[in-house]
Fold each of these.
Amino acid sequence: MRVLKLILKNSLRHKLRTSLTILGMAIAVMAFGVLRTVLDMWAESVEATAANRLITRQAVSFIFPLPYSYRDKIAKIPGVETVSFANWFQGTYKDKNNFFSRMAVDPETFFSVYPELLLNPKEFETFKQERNSCVVGSEIANQYGFKLGDVIPIDGDIYPGKWEFVVRGIYLPREKSTDATQMVFHWSYLDERMKQDMPGRAGNVGWYIVKIKDPSQSAIISDQIDALFTNSPNATKTETERAFTQNFISGLNSLLQAMNFVSFIIIGIIMLVLGNTMIMSARERTREYAVLKTLGFSAGHLVGLILGESLLIAVLGAGFGLLATYPIVAGIAAVMPKGFFPFFFVTPTTIVLGAAAALLVGLAASIFPIQRALSTKIVDGLRFLG
Amino acid sequence: MPNALIDIKNVFKSYWRDSIEIPVLNDITLEVHNGEFLALMGPSGSGKTTLLNLIAGIDRPSKGSLTVSGTNIAELGESALAKWRSQHVGFVFQFYNLLPVLTAFENVELPLLLTSLSKAERQKHVELVLNVVGLGDRLHHYPKQLSGGQEQRVAIARAIVTDPTLLVADEPTGDLDKHSAEEILVLLDRLNKEFKKTIVMVTHDPRAAERASIQHHLDKGELS
């Protein structure tokens, strides 16, 4: 008990230095936590994919459309349960900063292939019946104050012109990791306008979402779908939703790797900050350690004193840092456009990683001071003037 | 003559600086018996502190035999030597060497943390020795709240709280004014005469040495 008290008193000997070290650690751990959260959210978006969904897109690039006529051909393949489709619409809602995904979809099938988007049956029926209606996720409804019956004006860019959609449904996310930031509307509403204004672009969809009965058949069914269109002008590439999402994210690989690297650089900085404090502390106490050894205190006692102090500072810094991570992440989520990350929250893994990193740093920062304290002869320590 | 408490035979001690051997003690032979108060005197660099460190078990001789209280401490390993020190030796340093973050009570209690005494027993021992050194009313004062003489008395209390076989003091009055130095010498004298403590003291001060029952002089590593 007295040793613990001595650890505490030693830690508080230079209050300003200890406070600044704890603050430095807290800021670094918080930065680590925020970076890990960003990385986690990308990983979560992959994890949130369903195993029984395949995505069929144009073989050359995701940005090229596929004919609507493919739908029935795909549906005939054995093992396919439902075929839905979607089309990226984009556009601007009032301001370019109001970013959320806007897609033209098949109203009949879209919510059945995405059961994690929970829509009230009554709202679903109304949505299906009105061609210019839309359904929005609960997060963007909260953010922009959308209510049932509201008209959402969109300035088209990929599909030029003024567009208006009536909110007829607000879906809820089934899981915390479900994207509740989408706006979906009738593909037929878009297609009709294309037929009138830009006939060359009519009759196309962005990609197909193929719900299959048995996820273990995904490779076979994917091959069968692509085989159907091998020699057509619009060859397809079909893959699982997970692979599709991973490929989409792979475009950001360099950025993700850089962020990963920076997060570990931060750990190194924490180690230097704490290591510097511990080395200074241990150096100042060279004579005291010699006195303790003279009194009969063992190497184990000295290790306990130095390691205990290092861990105490590390744990306090990590604790404050991780606590600060929550409001910072919440703040970032609040100001970041919805849809940039479908969800943004601190995962338990981030907390565990942050705490483990802090403990590791506490341990590593004490190694040199411990080695110095143990290797200094008592007579040399007693002569030490500091 | 009964067996000596400290029996030093043909002890040599030298230090190495780079590849140069610097002899400090040269063939020292000395006996100190129970209850004696020995003063080691000599000019700076004569080796008196080195000899004291060898007797106290915080340094090792280069050659020779050094038996204290029946144990040849030159042959003990590091951890055994640390344990031996905690049981047999009390130290008083020139600059007190109290831990500044601990109160007088906590400083004196430190050596007792290595024993199996209960908290209540430790408290009883600490209060007793602090009363012996006249600081019963300064239990919860920190070193910076005490005068130099009071700090040295706390250090003496810390040295005797485990009731060690031997008390070693390295220039215990070297950092004190005349009045405080006299108080410390009176206290050491009392510990020797009243509590029968064997004391080995290194000092420059002839008045301090006069308190001792035996005086030895060291010069260039040799006893005279």
Amino acid sequence: MNVRPDTTRDPSRPLGPLVWLDMDQQALDDAYDQEVYAPNRELVVARRHAASERARARLGPPKRVAYGPSEHEGLDIFDGGTGGAPVNVFVHGGAWRRNRAADYALQAEVLVRAGAHSVILDFINVDQAGGDLFPMYEQVRRGLAWVWRNAKSFGGDPDRVYVSAHSSGSHLAGVALTRGWQEEKLPRDAFKGAVLLSGMYDLHPVRLSKRSSYVKFTDAMVQELSGQRHIAGLHTPLILAHGTAETPEFQRQTRDFAAAATAAGKSAQLIVGAGYNHFELLETLANPYGLLGRAMLEQMRLAPN
Amino acid sequence: MNVQQGTPQRARGALVWLDMDQRALDDAYDQVVYAPNRDQVHKRNEFNSERVRRRLGQPKRLAYGPTPVEQLDLFPTKQAGAPINVFIHGGAWRQRWAKDYHFLAEMFVNAGANFIALDFIGVDKTGGDLLPMADQVRRAVAWIYQNAKSFGGDPNRIYLSAHSSGAHLGGNVVTTDWKTYGAPNNVIKGALLGSGIYDLKPVRLSKRSEYVKFTDEVEAKLSSQRHLDLLNCPLIVAHGTFETPEFQRQARDFAVAVKAAGKSVTLLVAEGYNHFEMCEMLGNPLSLIGSAALEQMKLA
């Protein structure tokens, strides 16, 4: 029995006018609604919270640092234990409106055990920002820049700063890696690699979906915050991943971004996780022998432990 | 939304086991009723196993007995004289192969242990008899003990991990009278039994008796909970909170019985995991189950 449908369209329901590719409004709305394709979302989220508590108990509390002026701009640093160690910065997802760094402490343990520092960003969410994605993007951009500039202050190696991200966090990281580094006046190879899971890289179809009920998309936002439209500025090798049980749009977004990056002569590796949905795929990043945890450590040239 | 669900509200029939009527008991021994993502997790197991083979290379395929199915897959670790983890797979006694569980190998191999996954006959090939299955896995353990040095393993540090019907067989292994198998009584130094069955009586009452020919002899000999006098190693018994009521109870009751017998047992309850996701956890050294397996082997 397959609980994740390939399509949610009831064949008895007449197809409405197409609004994006082969999708009518309902199909597109469903394709940007994770729970339709991942009915066990709450369960996987509960597992993540429990694993984060376990990780915090084992690792101890992280160092908390403000990377910008607002109350939201804070980050958690889990110490990899050695000076000059590589650093990984994680940008969480949550449809731009949910979650906080504290609930992703499980991401740190893989890295710390392998001898790297783990930095997990907090940032404003879209509801707090009145539906505007720009403040979110700008905070993530500043957070990433802060880590690069201040890596030595916490024992990190600024020449080995990597990024990992999930879902709407991959959207924000994708923009930061294509154009954000320029806005922050960082060297173009400031980030040596990134693993972006289950992200969005062109906002046009998202704008057409019901997500516009809480995100106030504008032409400028779609143009400036679609990483795929700024691919010439990409100088960070990417690992792009999606699961085969994700929504059709989340599969296509990753596939198309990988193809566009490759066509532009950039380094992009596509990993397709057989049997994983949107939330289950992230669980593999918190496992040194999991699909993406293993890929992340390889990218950082670290041995799993 | 909670996708793991039990029997929906309906008129209840006569009770056949505890508070369960026939339908409830049948459901409690049918994983997919409580774990609707079964096929997806199996797909992941096979996908990840293929990736591990690409990294570690093909395992050594060794025969532990005379029939073609009596073979095992060995992923050796680097150091000689290293401990051995022997994995017994599940699949309702009728499905799955050692090669579907190679995804578990890399954690053990990197931690400094040899990893062995056993193949053995399925119940559909034995005319419904479980006794040949238990005999094969016991002979496999004895073979590993006798041949460990030939592949760099330490015969005195053999550990077991097992899942589902494999944990049922694992329960049989740890309650074996080893004299007839040519191995010492303490051949197994520790075992992690995940999501298993330790008393066959309620299983016999369920629809599983359509394909398993339960007899009084099978029930008596292969209910490990009835042979705890033979248990000689510390156990970790685990279940997930999204398993069927019976698979939760079997683990819980077994742990209580082992403790009451004055033997060493730890019960691990994984919050939010179903039957198949439990097995995935074993391959993650940061998880409740994977970390326990490594700690038991003193590799953590």
